[in-house]
Amino acid sequence: MAKKKVSIPQYGTVMRRGIQYYRTRITDADGKRVDLYAETSEELYEKELEARRQVEEAVFRRKHPTVAEYCEKWLLMQSAKVSSSTLKGYTQNMNNYIVKPLGDMYLSEVTADDIRLALIPLSQKSAGLYSTVNMLLKCVFYSAERNQLLDYNPCVGISAKGGKPGKKKNALTDEQVKLLLETVRELPPYVFIMIGLYSGLRREEILALQWDCVFLDVPTPYISVRRAWRTEHNRPVISTTLKTKAAQRDIPIPKCLADCLRQVKATSISEYVIADSKGQPLADSQFKRLWQYVVVRSTKERTYYKYVNGQSIKCKVTPIPGGHQKNNPKLVYSLDFDVTPHQLRHTYITNLLYAGVDPKTVQYLAGHENSKTTMDIYAQVKYNKPEHLLSVVNAAFSAPVGA
């Protein structure tokens, strides 16, 4: 069978640096006119075919991006809205749990079953991580749907619940608060702990707190939350971008905290309430060292590594309450409970609810944007102890039907 002869178009010519070239023009994927040149019409024809193929592919990929391509675009759009640390977390989770299993697929090809299969490994992770990845998946696919890149959104009907529930952190009891404060009274984390327990500020709000937002010489002393602390490459970054709009608030503080802050302010050399030796806000590693003063005084089992004959050996320590650290006899294992920075805030909120403060006021003082967060804590505080409910139940069934 005779090979069909290719009909090569009649191209125009142009002289460039004394050499004659064949020339044609095509429209690229962005709608711009592009010139193509070659020394022979056959060569130009091949160039034109390849260029048109690339344009068609680019147009197709814009209308049919892969999951990886659209995730990258979505993250770029988020970079103008969220902090660098939040974006870093989004990027890491998206690459590990969305792009790896789904990245090579076209968005329009992904089904609900593909989403469920991608979420299976997360069922063995924490509920918090599962929820975050689930949120990222839905944001990406809902965004693609709004931009008419999908005829059907595969995330519809995907459950937001999954993963292993984490260990529940309860509020500290009055006895635990007293022991904690006695343990750290002369130690660096004391002021941080006092602010957390008696104002309920988040960690990033405490570490960004400056004296111009601490009002002690007024009839009702209060703290004004206006800044947040974050870190980039271990360096502190203080900004006026708070976690939510509700985070901006004025919090009246009790006398014990006001007195503590007056003492600190009298000797402070910094504009920051919590600062390093040079008066600067703490870096991430500095805060971790600050909190270690609490960790090393607890009886929680922990591990460490030591070198013996050039080999790294893993060792376990199970502190005994009232015991002393081997290399530091002054350090006493006095905390028979675990405590985290966030528990200070949780304890503050819980104590407000125990004191009968209405949930709406607690929502404002805590800086909760969503009332559900406050009400979940409220329900836990009010309804988790049978002895508190006995009178309610007795009243409800004091006159049984037919008695």
From TrEMBL:
Pfam family, one: Phage_integrase
Task performed by this protein: Site-specific tyrosine recombinase, which acts by catalyzing the cutting and rejoining of the recombining DNA molecules.
Core-binding (CB) domain residues: 65-141
Residue span, Tyr recombinase domain: 167-394
Organism: Dorea phocaeensis
One record GO biological process: DNA integration
InterPro entries xrefs: CB, DNA_brk_join_enz, Integrase-like_cat_sf, Integrase_catalytic, Integrase_recombinase_N, Integrase_SAM-like_N, Tyrosine_recombinase_XerCD
Database matches in PROSITE patterns: CB (PS51900), TYR_RECOMBINASE (PS51898)
Family: Belongs to the 'phage' integrase family.
Record protein name field: Tyrosine-type recombinase/integrase
The entry's keywords: DNA integration, DNA recombination, DNA-binding
Taxonomic superkingdom: Bacteria
Molecular function terms, GO-annotated: DNA binding
